[in-house]
Amino acid sequence: MAQTVTDFQPLDYTRYDFKDPETYKVRTAKGLSRQIVEQISKLKSEPAWMREYRLRAYDHFVERPMPDWGPDLSDIDFDAYTYYANPLAEGETKRSWEDLPPDIKNTFERLGIPKAEREFFGGVGAQYDSGTVYHKIREDLQKKGVIFTDTDTAVKEYPDIVRKYFGKIVPFNDNKFSALNSAVWSGGSFVYVPPGVDAGIPLQAYFRINAKNVGQFERTLIIADKGAKVHYIEGCLPAGEEVLVGDQLTPIEAIERGQPVLNSDGVETIVEKTMVRPFQGELINITPVSIGNRFSLTPDHPVLCIPRARVAWRPRPSGSLGDLKPGALLTASPEFVPAGELQPGDFLHYPINQTTRDDASLGEPELRILGYYLAEGCVQQINGYEAVTFTFHIEESEYVNELSRAIESVTGKKPWRTPQPQKHAITIGVYSKELHAFCLKHAGKYAAGKHLSKAVMELPPAKQRIVLEAYYNGDGNRYERFGTVYRVMTVSRQLAFQVQELQARQGIYATINVREPFDEAMPDGRRISHQRLYTVYYQVGKAAEAVHRSGDAFLVPIRGIERTPYEGNVYNFHVAGTNNTYLVKGFSVHNCTAPVYSTDSLHAAVVEVIAEPYAKVRYTTVQNWSKNVYNLVTKRAAAEEGALVEWVDGNMGSKVTMKYPSVFLKGRGSRADILSVAFASQGQIIDSGAKAVHLAPDTSSKIISKSIAIRGGQTSYRGLLRVAKGASGVKAAVRCDALLPDDSSRSDTYPYNEIHEEDATITHEAVVGKIGEEQIFYLMSRGLNESDAIHLILMGFLAEFAKELPMDYALELNRLIQLEMTGAVG
Predict the structure, then answer these.
(1) Would you say residue 305 lies in a domain?
(2) What pLDDT sits at residue 429?
(3) Three-state SS sequence of 722-745
(4) Considering 589, 606, 638, which residue would you say is the last residue of a domain?
(5) Domain total of the chain
(6) E strand or H helix at 305, and its extent?
(7) DSSP assignment string, 386-404
(8) Between the ranges 4-18, 495-509, 708-722, where is the mean pLDDT highest?
């Protein structure tokens, strides 16, 4: 007989229950006092107004009693905690994995995060105890006035904005823990999006508490000005996908820290951190008009593009590009769009390589030789002597003479000529050890192995034109088809993409077609195997160009999009500088991020969100604090006229969580959507919920709360729905769903409704359910074991929440629940 779902076994968390040596460069004494608050402010070199704000908050914290509702917090001894501990000097940020102190590296090692991921989190986007969070922002958004930095930096660099909004949504006297945070806050994120700007910026920072009895008190402030949009994006690339590193394409899994790559400005930058993680789901396969540049990525990965809908008169089912508004495409600014939202006809961003390093040793004759060598040349050993030979059609005397002059200029030797009338060919060559080595160094050997060196790929475009001219003379052809078509064909994949890049530097977007390898039966019974062939071509004189030049980039339409299932590792990396992008098959994409785990102590954060009229803000988070962290967080937003605020909030870890994301609907027609999930296991109390306060007419709110309690865990929904006097026409809905898989766990609901307008439309639903044995039996009869059956039921219960998460977080949620279920049944 199958074991019942009440037979849960304790889950071993010893692999997470550790601390590193507590070696801090900056650390205050244990306990909380006015002197400690003043010391924190002095360490940060803050302005007087912030120091005074901290001290007023401290005074209120001391006077304010502990809350007399909710979970029991009587075990918290505030004087037992250290309120500021930074493993680095104040203001110091490490960008290299090797530069991090051994204890921090040990933390990520012990947590089991793969090496590539821990390198990323070691220096980018990680707050370790009180250490400052590292932030970056895309250069294109920075030019539009978007600010994305840590809050400590914002106080110094943007004091007017910070002072205008800081503490206005969550004042220090709101509750005891907002007072605590206001007194001792450190780190967190500051985001400001100017009017009308749509910013796809990560709003999530990554936090690790290491030392026992050290608190973490980050402060996040997000301002979306009138009509602005802020949302959360992330994603990765599968193994085998290729990144442009300047002179060649390199598989993303082979990218290493310190390696140069190109960004969306066509400028060389350096890889700082690499990342890898498992992925199971759909890949987005994007085929531009250049079929050879097809690439794949996860659905959430941001791609720089101009959506066709923005620049078209109307949609054309045929996919015709003739419906573009005159001039609209070339004046539109590219934006980042998740790959899963791209459509055929959208314009991808293909930047022109701006890297230029001249090499005086590569003059006109040397470059002309290289061009002809790519087309017709061969390095050989003839009678023990190094030689370079070239074979032309017998009627190509012009090119033969041109090459002969170049060879004689470079080597001082007159090349020999050997006519082959029966083959309609002529071979010219020269014995030269130096030229032999030169061709190998700068152009490789054998047809499939030919490629240009980095030195040639970085030459000024005028010099590169010499190589292209000679290459097209030797191997190219032209024909008429809706204009004049120029093309070259090669079996070298690397050379094909290099020619495409060199043509781009000449102001020409060349497309790549691929003929797959095949065997051909000959009349005499022989079979000839044909290699994969790459055709690089461009067309002039067309009535309407599909590809458009815009500044230092080409806008390349998408021909088709497919989705394919994938299971395996996906990869990403982080680059230096403010433009955190790189090129996949030549096209601009953004980097991505992924969750990280934290452990040990007291966490009391404050998040303030301001959505000005008609702005849209979505804030997504999934927390997995260890089982001895008090997680006491205040999150609140203010929505002005026509604004929309969305909280997507998941709570998986901690000893005690008290968190109630709130929206104050202050302007007519503003909206709030709050989706909250709690998952409590043995020894956990998750007291969460939401608040919607309607202060203006015609506002609406929707609150959905999902909770699961297993192994004696406790979950509570604690919510407030308030409709103020004068807020007519309000529509609000609250739904609380709880699932109890066993008899030892508990779920409670504490709804508070204050309605002061008679025309308000309010609905409230609350459901508590258990997993039926018939459900488990049905799934087990379909081949699942009991644990997998319960896990599937739980994930189905949380599907409404999971589908709103970025792909990384949905997968992480699934993995965390699997971890909780380990040993639960069997």
Answers:
(1) yes
(2) 95
(3) EECCCCCCCEEEEEEEEECCCCCC
(4) 589
(5) 2
(6) strand 302-306
(7) EEEEEEEETT-HHHHHHHH
(8) 495-509
